Every structure is written in structure tokens, then in C-alpha cells.
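pasting for the record
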Amino acid sequence: MIIDSYDKDTEEVISLKDFYGEKKNLTEKCLIIFSKSILEYLLSNFKCQEIGKIDSVNGSRTIYKSNFETQEFVFYLSMMGSALASADCVEVNWITGANKFIMFGSCGSLDKENTFGKYIIPTEAYRGEGTSYYYKAPSDYLDIKNSDKVEDFFIREKAPYIKGKVWTTDVMLRETRGLLSKRKQQGCIAVEMELAGVQAACDFYSIELYSFLESGDVLNESSHEVDGLNRANHDIKKLYLALKFLKEI
């Protein structure tokens, strides 16, 4: 069973050293980008330098270095989904030495009334995916340990936000009415596809993760509203929040 996948007693068979050589120490902070539009905005509006690549059989993705108000950072376009996004994070840590990651993306709201017009700061993630069970002992929820630090920043920035539980799923096409109802009854206010796995991997490798979300579509037991999805996916405002937050971590 998937919940039996956490093995902390024996060593890994595969090492990133086999693919990338010795671990590097080039920088400290990194932005995880999910929107190609936001990536292109950074490349067009900031001075950027290629410093590495995430390699795979279906192609390579570039890791870039840049600066914001004298603060150096790296960034890359992450793959979507818990398994791939967590692997990207761990590989970028190895390739660049970055050990403080800010992850900001979009999500589906499960509570339109309370999330409308606000960013979402996750406090716990329901482990409705597979990756996290390889990095942590089984449990229903995973703590998002730096949520208080993210909240402190949002308060100082006077950015509208709500804190709460989120649901990490592997398969958005199987977000059924019954599962929506269960997660909402447990207090989840949003659903997304990466956080539980990325947080579990970061905890395992002692990487600091800071996360916030912007809701786009709205899901409930009777309908699916998609009007805000494109805006949430590619909103430049959340990029600048992440850039300002670089100074806080």
C-alpha cells in the first residue's frame, strides 16, 4: 500500500550525483514558477543569467539567476503535480544550493465566500497524492510549517489573505462531489496539486519552503466556475509579492 512507502532505515539506490556531479553552492533563494507567462515576464523585465538545467528524457528546463532590489535569487518553470514538482525542487537544490524556496501558484477555491479577493496561506495539506508518503510517515494532513512567517509578511504588506487547510490531489479530473464534500467538512478551503509532496520533500531534505496561493476556479458539489482561473494562473501581482518576500527569508 502507498502508506507503507516511507522507508527511513535504508539508503537510496539513486543519487543526484550520478546525474549532476557534486552538489553546488551557487545561491540561497529560489522562486518556484508554474506560469509560463510569469516566467516570460521575468525573462523580459529582469536581467537573467542561465546557471543550470533540470535534465530529463523529455527535454531540459533552464534554471535562471536574477536580482530584485539587490536580492539575488534563482527561478525555474516547475512541472505540475506533486511528484514532478517535488522532484524539481530537490534537483534545483542540488544543482544550485538554494535551500529557501518560495512557491506561489493558483488553486481551486472550496469556499468562495471566504476566499474571494484574497490570497490563501496554507496551514495544512491533505495528502491526497502519493509523493508525500515516500518522505514522511503516513497521516491524513501535513503541517505547512512556515505559514506563520508568510502571514507576518502579508500583514506588513497589507495584502488580503485567509489561512486554512488545503487539499493536495494528484488527479483534478477525479475531484468528485463526494470528495469535495469530505474535504470541506474537514475545513479545507482550497484544492491544488503540489503542496503536500513538495512540503514533505523539503522537510526530508531540510529545505525551507514558503507557500501561498491565489484561487481561480471555484468548486462545489453542484458546479464548477472557471471565470477567474486564467487571472489566478498568470497574475503578476503575486510574483511581486514573492519577490518582496525574498528579503524576509
